[in-house]
Amino acid sequence: MTPAETPPTFHGAQTPRTTRAALAQYDAAVPEWGIGEIDDAGRWIPHELPGLLVIAPHPDDEVLGAAALIAAGLRRGSPVRVLAATDGTGSHPSSSIPADQLAEIRAAESEAAMAELRSLTPGPHGLGTLERIRLQLPDGELSTHTESLTEAIGAALQDLPDGTLVTAPLSRDGHPDHDACGEAAAAAAAQHNAPLVQYPVWLWLHSTPPAPRAAGEEAPGADEASELRAEAAPSSGTEVPWTAARSIPIDAELARVRGRAVAGFVSQLGTAHGTPVDRAPGEPVLTATMLATVLRERQIVFPGTPLDFEGLHAGQADPWGVTSRWYEQRKYALTMAVLPRARYRRAFEPGCSIGVLTEQLAQRCDAVLATDISGSALQAATRRVAAENVTFEQASIEDWPDGTIDLILISELAYYLNDSQWATVLGRAADTLESGGHLVSVHWRHPDAQAFRSAEQIRADLRAVPGWDLHGSYADPDMLIDVLGPASPSVAQTEFLH
């Protein structure tokens, strides 16, 4: 890797654009990732994590960017596999040290770091396993090997449990190898319907996160969020999905273990093997300033929603089992039962999938607009529902219909929306839900690594919408259902209590 191969605004040696105090303020405002929680020992542990696959562009990235994720997997008792894309032979010129010798040094440093992470105290499910696999792709050239890297990630997923979480550098991290790993991981996750979370490393050196919102300040809408991303990104114009960020706290034990692991990367912390290719004489790759900027009290991650909904519906007639599972049949019956009115004028059902709930809504509504981003799902829904009062459209949640609505169904959808999208949905729903109308929220309570928020968080956000009352709710260990909307009489008050 040479400075010419990196983005013109950044090659890793510059002074950070953001002070550590500002980063600490930003970290404190980032919501904690809802797929886990802090246990009695102060450790953040996921509720469920079948496996973890970490993509590391170079030896040390797995610790600098993903130590908290690896610790979470180990403490959950899960199998953790680190896929080392390169051996990091581009960090020093071959005139200073032969590439094959440097490869073995850096691989050994990474193995020693893995041993440090294995020393973590086991969680309630025991300590998971941790292994490292070398792909030995050329350092500095991963952007020309994304296809083989994507295939390698897919092959690794085949050997891990279903539901394994893929984690890789942010595809806007600012280093070409990191960006390539992020893009390859996103492609592989989509192909295999695996959850994805991206981690930043060099991002903190070249970009400025948005300032935290003041108390009571509304979340930005879609247009404003886009402007914030552009303003906070490097001058190269790449966008960073700041509103998708989530945090993982670094407990005292993990901080100590992470510190020991980083200290083992001697080749990157000094100049015993010569001056690195993009550093001034006497300057190491990992400077004290860089480490202090990256290794903070919270690890920031960017959960993604890589599910290929089109591929799911194209490959399976009923990917969610909505026509075969009693859970789904019961959920739909409960949803219809909580509707306070016998009849609605106009219903909106985003994310309708294959139209099982749509079919039932058609019997209670004069008109139903059902949308989904998957064309295959809509084809199946059209075949299922022949009612003339139903209109199907291929659209995303942000394609909100014009006019007023008296029934909005948001079912199994809100957790997949980033903060900007969710804020937009809340605002549009409040603006378009007419007097006497209802919004019904139905969401799965169990943890989901692809989710930006839990069912409990969705419930709290909906109940905080100004001008809305709670008209009914249902809860069991699997699901939460809420009926909200402007103040209106109860069913009995409407029908016979006067």
Task: Quickly list its features.
single chain; 498 residues; alpha/beta; Rossmann fold; 7-stranded mixed sheet; 20% strand; hydrolase activity, acting on carbon-nitrogen (but not peptide) bonds, in linear amides
Account of the protein in words:
- The chain is an alpha/beta fold.
- It folds into two domains: 3-306, LmbE-like (Rossmann fold, 3-Layer(aba) Sandwich), CATH 3.40.50.10320; 312-495, Rossmann fold, CATH 3.40.50.
- It has 18 helices and 16 strands.
- The strands form three sheets. The protein has a seven-stranded mixed sheet, sandwiched between helices. The chain has a seven-stranded mixed sheet with strand order 12-11-10-13-14-16-15, sandwiched between helices.
- α4 packs antiparallel against α9 and α5 (146-158) packs across α6 (176-192).
- The termini are far apart.
- 45% of the residues are buried.
- InterPro entries: GlcNAc_PI_deacetylase-related, LmbE-like_dom_sf, Methyltransf_25, SAM-dependent_MTases_sf.
- Residues 350-437 form the Methyltransferase domain.
- GO terms for molecular function: hydrolase activity, acting on carbon-nitrogen (but not peptide) bonds, in linear amides; methyltransferase activity.
- One of its GO terms (biological process) is glycoside metabolic process.
